Amino acid sequence: MKLPLKVGLLAAVTWISIKLAAFYLSLSLDDLRPFVFINMFILTASIAVALYLVKRKETENNLLNDVKNGMLAGVPYAVIVSVFLYFYYQKIYPAFNEGKMNEISMKLSKPQTIKEIQRENPEMENKSVEEIKRDILAKTKMVYNPQFTMLVSMLSLLLYATLNSIVITLIFRRIVFRN
After folding, report:
1. Which of 101, 95, 99, 83 is nearest to 153 (CA)?
2. Of the given ranges (76-90, 106-120, 144-158), which has the lowest mean pLDDT?
């Protein structure tokens, strides 16, 4: 197994362990921001470490190979973490989705919230209160669907891994490993 792949798999296991530890310790379960930032940091670190280790060993100097090696660490990470998120929100912690749906339902029960929605969205001006509630709850249900979460996280992590691979490769080539 190639070294960047091992680094990516180890990074994915690390993030999954952090997420599960937080779940079992009941730490920040409903706040996504810390986990998103930890996810981004671990993905960036895995790409940087994999690229550094490969660049130290190889003598071939090719920009495309460097980007490929960065992606070799980032893509498995993105896929494994995204699939884990599906199972996490589907099986391990489905109460998160239910809580978010209940939170939106509570907000929609206030007439002031409905008036704000009608004022901010011209297409909702002529809809009844029930139609507005139904539309917003349907959109919210779709957003907090585990499959949707998996898809969005996979796409965003793959894009982030691609951009990071390019940027980190350029930084390494210009600053760390000057040729």
Report:
1. 83
2. 106-120
Q: pLDDT tens for residues 75-108?
A: 999 999 999 999 999 999 988 888 888 888 888 8
Among 41, 57, 51, CA closest to 73: 51
pTM of the model: 0.86
CB 8 within 8 A of CB 76: yes
Which residue type does 121 have? N
Q: Are 100 and 61 in contact (CB under 8 A)?
A: no
CA 8 to chain centre: 15
CA–CA dist 28, 171 (Å, integer): 34
Q: Is 90 exposed, middle or buried (0-12, 13-18, 19+ CB in 10 A)?
A: middle
Dihedral in degrees, nearest 10, Cα atoms 168, 172, 175, 179: -140
DSSP 121-161: -GGGTTS-HHHHHHHHHHHHHHHT-HHHHHHHHHHHHHHHH
**Token match 């980190």: residue?**
168
